[in-house]
Amino acid sequence: MKYFLSIYCDEAADARKNKEEQEQVYVAYGAYDSDGRQRGVILSGEALHPSSTATTVRVRNGKTITTDGPFAETKEQLGGYYIIDCKNLDEAIDWAKRVPHASESAVEIRPIMVFS
Predict the structure, then answer these.
(1) In a domain, 116, yes or no
(2) Range of 42's domain?
(3) Model's pTM, two decimal places?
(4) Among 8, 61, 85, 107, which one has the highest count of C-beta atoms within 10 angstroms of its own C-beta?
(5) Helix (H) or strand (E) holding 82
């Protein structure tokens, strides 16, 4: 079954990390990503630019409305994602808890719908 892992982080806290701390995070993600791809679990994944670069689109009464910035003001922002292929939710949880930001923020697991 495929799962979407949403990686949430505190962008302000991440920005306060010094170069060495940031490098440790990059190395941890590199190891996680490499292991998951070698095992055939990680199908894809990307880091995202900060939420300040987001554009939110809404259509109301046929009119397109765009807003600079994220959909909602929150303490934690969506920082990246992985799409993984696991046997079950327990295996997905095992992979989610290994995401580097899981130790300081949150990783949400959602099953991906399959349409026939």
Answers:
(1) no
(2) 2-111
(3) 0.86
(4) 107
(5) strand 77-85
